[in-house]
Amino acid sequence: MTRPGIDDIEAARAVYQPLTQSVRTLIDTLVRTEVDLDSARAAHAHIRKALDLLGEKVMPGSFGTCSDLQQRGEPWGNVVIGLRNPMALPLNIVDDSPGQVSADMHVGAAYEGPPGHVHGGVCSLVLDHVLSAAAYQPGRPVYTGTLQITYVRPTPLGELRAEAWVEHEAGRKTYVRGRLVSEGHTTVKAQGIFIRPVD
Amino acid sequence: MTRPGIDDIEAARAVYQPLTQSVRTLIDTLVRTEVDLDSARAAHAHIRKALDLLGEKVMPGSFGTCSDLQQRGEPWGNVVIGLRNPMALPLNIVDDSPGQVSADMHVGAAYEGPPGHVHGGVCSLVLDHVLSAAAYQPGRPVYTGTLQITYVRPTPLGELRAEAWVEHEAGRKTYVRGRLVSEGHTTVKAQGIFIRPVD
């Protein structure tokens, strides 16, 4: 699953970051557009052309990792933080202090569950990733063992903050808590146990 | 949040279902493409044109609901099942028996977390939705109270099955269990408590 290196990472970034952002905007716009059906059909023709161009040579399977990117801690295909994945919010995780992280994000129309609100499963997706990030230490990867999500109140679409912090460690287990905050209110709480594989 | 009705739902469906599928393929292709940067730039130009067309008239906020679609139980903007949301797998949930549902799906490169595997948060997103569907009864909506996810083993990208079933009910609470199954193995288990709002 490790891909060959990328010749010029910065040149690739300069093309793929804005391209991915445009597709991200396209997703949001497709959900919200109110143009007539003829305009939608014309847009579809352009998307087919983009697909023809990008689809001419496609790697099998998934993006996986590439040694150059892995060294930089940049999984470009990742669904939550990937530079080349338009489904990624993307989440920009900040290390606030050892074992404590946060991320401020805008969650738009494409993440809707109940009308006007973030899908509960998207809340758990974000919390899974942020709690993992709090448990992570360089050179010591962890995987999620269990995750418990408590929905305190509905989470409105819009500006959202995720926070996570390590409570304690015991052997190979790291106990982490976290929450989502919307307009000063905690909307979802989480606790997770993250496990370090045996060396 | 309830939108005005759609003049001709079937005409809209005939345009938006294939358009959304093309954007879904575009997301997957953007993650996996290996074309040169000039081709990627040319694809970007087409995507900008599609955006110009679709962005000419956009509803504020999110898709929310529309009375015609709500009657049919079709939230077109929903991130997991929405006809107009290319982030949706989409999940096609089947009622196997009262209180028991399942969904077979293909989870592609765009849902990657660990290389070659489904992001743990995507597993929880799918389980949240499928457990909710098991708890749902017509005219009796529920919201997720708590959700507990246990990761048994990594979930490979590819064909995946989600199952959920009601264990028991107590007052306004419905206790539900579920799991993800990949190639005959349970990879993730879930249990949730779903709550019916006071009438």
From TrEMBL, chains A, B:
Swiss-Prot/TrEMBL GO biological process terms: fatty acid metabolic process
Family to which the UniProt record says this protein belongs: Belongs to the THEM4/THEM5 thioesterase family.
Gene Ontology MF terms in the entry: hydrolase activity
Protein's organism: Mycolicibacterium murale
Major enzyme class: hydrolase
EC number of the protein: 3.1.2.2
Highest rank taxon of the organism: Bacteria
Catalytic activity: octanoyl-CoA + H2O = octanoate + CoA + H(+); (5Z,8Z,11Z,14Z)-eicosatetraenoyl-CoA + H2O = (5Z,8Z,11Z,14Z)-eicosatetraenoate + CoA + H(+); dodecanoyl-CoA + H2O = dodecanoate + CoA + H(+); hexadecanoyl-CoA + H2O = hexadecanoate + CoA + H(+)
InterPro entries with a match to the protein in the record: HotDog_dom_sf, THEM4/THEM5_acyl-CoA_thioest, Thioestr_dom
Protein name in UniProt: Acyl-coenzyme A thioesterase THEM4
Cellular compartments annotated: Cell projection, Ruffle membrane; Cytoplasm; Membrane
Membrane-topology annotation of the record: Peripheral membrane protein
Cellular component annotations (GO), alphabetically ordered: cytoplasm; membrane
Coiled-coil boundaries: none
Domain Thioesterase: 116-188
Transit peptide in keyword set: yes
SUPFAM superfamilies linked: Thioesterase/thiol ester dehydrase-isomerase (SSF54637)
Keyword terms: Apoptosis, Cell membrane, Cell projection, Cytoplasm, Fatty acid metabolism, Hydrolase, Lipid metabolism, Membrane, Transit peptide
